[in-house]
Amino acid sequence: MKNKLRIIGGDWRSRQLNFVDAPGLRPTPARVRETVFNWLRYEISGKQCLDLYSGSGALGFEAASRGAKLVVQVENNIQACRSLKDNIVALSATQIKTVQSDVLRYLAGDAQVFDVVFLDPPFGLSLVIQTCQLLEQNAWLAKHAKIYVETERHFDFFGMPENWRLLKSKSAGEVGYHLFERAEV
To answer: Quick one: which of 157, 81, 159, 73 has its CA closest to 114?
Structure first.
């Protein structure tokens, strides 16, 4: 089953993306994406972005549409990766690369430094804290990187990297969405 979502801003505004039904895949709603990209309005253009647990690719495509120099999408589900790659072709999105991999395994590999990270794992699998710790410990983040984290509404952030500070936080329905900034260690 193919589903659709619309890019809300930038060069590809109003273009549609197709994505598949997959367990745990919840595209970030347009209203939330609009808020997140308002928060990040000066942080995307010309930057390197990492979209972990990419799913539909909504956040990564939105970042590329708004001028990101590079977007790396990491997704484990083979059908979701196929949809991501089809959307890259449809948009001629040469600045987007898709990696089919388990996110934790990917973050254990050779690090590349990113300015902005989107982190939206499937709910209920306790992946947020572990993923954030790997980003920090394995040198994936630029000095003042921004990290967007989407969680269950009532999420306990105990165990987050100590040098990250929460800049913004909101909720919509059962979803909490948060923007952190990494401080130099």
So the answer is: 73
Could you give the CA distance from residue 93 to residue 54 in angstroms, rounded to a whole number? 16
- Which value, to the nearest 10 degrees, does the dihedral of the CA atoms of residues 95, 96, 99, 104 take? 100
SS3 96: strand
DSSP designation for 29: P
Least confident stretch, 13-27, 73-87, 133-147: 13-27
pLDDT of the residue at 1: 46
The pLDDT score that the predictor gives to residue 59 is 96
Closest CA to 169 of 161, 157, 184: 157
Model pTM score: 0.95
User: How many residues does this entry show for the chain?
Assistant: 185
